[in-house]
Write a structure and sequence with these properties.
CATH class of the largest domain: Alpha Beta
Largest sheet: 9 strands, mixed
Strand order of the largest sheet: 1-2-3-4-5-6-7-8-9
CATH architecture of the largest domain: Alpha-Beta Barrel
Helix content: 25-40%
Structural class: alpha/beta
Bound molecules: iron/sulfur cluster
Shape: globular
Number of strands: 12
Radius of gyration: 22 Å
CATH superfamily of the largest domain: Aldolase class I
Length: 405
């Protein structure tokens, strides 16, 4: 079936060190000099490393560096490029408008039933296309106990919040003990149903998924791990082994990818990634349009290109392997789904659509008067009403007008 290449430890590093996540984090490369010592760099790359180190931090684990050495697509996600300095990219400091939905420090409340909890700004890699550059790698590694309590209190006081998404930064850079405490605190809030953890460590440091972490996740279920693979070359034998271990222990794993110009913006690449993920029981969930954060102009695909990829995949690829192409509306307008348009025409009461392989067919719409009322609905109507009327964030809609740098 699929072959997943192994990334072995360099001969001068004992395997026990190489496969320990803390060693990978402690030995992550951060300075231009460290990169120059470990990678053969072009003059342009050297210049970019020096010019951009103070604009958005540079970092990668030794493990992921090996992938950077082998695959240009992977390298482009980790190494800075001078194009990040191009001022004509229609950038936004805060493309998701999170500062407008930040009722207490570290909490982003943009949707009625869920919040983001930014538990650290620290990552195992600083992805050059990062959406949250205004927060990530800004020296906010730890949450002060005052801010932590305020965040918990906010979640506690807002009973319509059903789901907490631990994000950042990368929550899995925190110690097991810290993660355990956060999960225990969240689980003590009765209205919290679901906890999600968004992390790129399963990609850049798969050894992070250790036995202790798995036991902690199992003890606080339902916990969903949201990984962030963007390219099939990132899916190594080491990643596969650790992801399967999560799945075998009943932890659901979903993947969110970002479409990136010249890196993965072709249906052949997306299908390769998604089929391999699905094969190891990781569900491809989102395929995001890259957000216009600072320095990402060269990464962003056109909407036409992204929709073409999705349309090409539609129907050819199993539904289970097809992720949802979505875009966050700039300035914090929330997510919209970009779906292939199959509609052809409406004739009388029949809707015609063209299928993935060109067959056009009409769906006879039922007449409204034949539709019965939905039964056994009363208790769910209450839930629905709470969900629909749950206050969230703050903000006045006028604030949403796009502001580009
Ligand atoms: S791991 Fe996530 S938060 Fe960190 S730099 Fe990459 S995209 Fe941004």
């Amino acid at each position: 079936m699929f072959h997943f290449k192994s990334i072995s430890a360099p001969s001068n590093i004992p395997k026990e060190q190489w496969t320990h996540w803390k060693w990978q984090m402690q030995n992550a490369l951060k300075t231009p000099e460290e990169f120059e010592k470990s990678l053969h760099l072009s003059e342009e790359e050297k210049k970019a490393l020096h010019s951009l180190k103070n604009i958005f931090a540079v970092k990668t684990t030794p493990y992921y560096l090996q992938l950077c050495q082998q695959y240009p697509a992977v390298r482009q996600m980790a190494l800075p490029h001078l194009k990040e300095l191009d001022p004509s990219g229609f950038y936004q400091e805060d493309p998701l408008g999170e500062k407008n939905h930040n009722p207490v420090p570290r909490i982003i409340h943009r949707y009625p039933d869920r919040v983001l909890f930014l538990v650290t700004d620290f990552c195992g890699i600083y992805c050059r296309y990062c959406t949250r550059k205004h927060f990530t790698a800004q020296g906010n590694h730890t949450v002060s106990s005052k801010d932590y309590q305020k965040a918990l209190q906010y979640i506690q006081n807002n009973q319509g919040i059903r789901e907490v998404i631990l994000s950042g930064g990368d929550p899995l850079t925190l110690s097991n003990n810290r993660i355990k405490n956060i999960l225990t605190d969240l689980r003590s809030i009765p209205h919290i149903e679901i906890i999600r953890i968004g992390s790129r460590l399963p990609v850049v440091c798969p050894f992070r998924i250790d036995e202790e972490l798995i036991d902690i996740l199992k003890a606080h279920q339902p916990v969903f791990i949201m990984t962030h693979f963007n390219h099939p070359k990132e899916l190594t034998a080491e990643c596969v082994k650790h992801l399967l271990h999560l799945c075998d222990n009943g932890i659901c794993v979903y993947n969110q990818m970002v479409l990136l110009n010249g890196i993965n913006n072709h249906p052949a690449v997306v299908q390769a990634l998604n089929r391999r993920l699905l094969f190891i029981r990781v569900r491809p969930y989102y395929m995001f349009q890259c957000d216009p954060s600072k320095g990402t102009g060269h990464f962003r695909t056109t909407i036409e290109n992204s929709k073409w990829i999705q349309k090409e995949l539609w129907g050819v690829l199993s539904g289970l392997a097809t992720s949802r192409l979505s875009m966050d509306l700039p300035s914090g307008g929330g997510k919209v789904e970009l779906v292939p348009d199959h509609f052809v025409k409406k004739e009388k009461n029949t809707f015609f659509h063209k299928g993935f392989d060109g067959i056009t067919s009409g769906y006879p719409n039922p007449t409204e008067s034949n539709l019965p009322d939905t039964t056994d609905i009363q208790e769910y109507l209450e839930e629905w009403k709470v969900l629909k009327t749950q206050p969230y964030g703050s903000l006045e809609k006028e604030n949403y007008a796009s502001q580009y740098i």
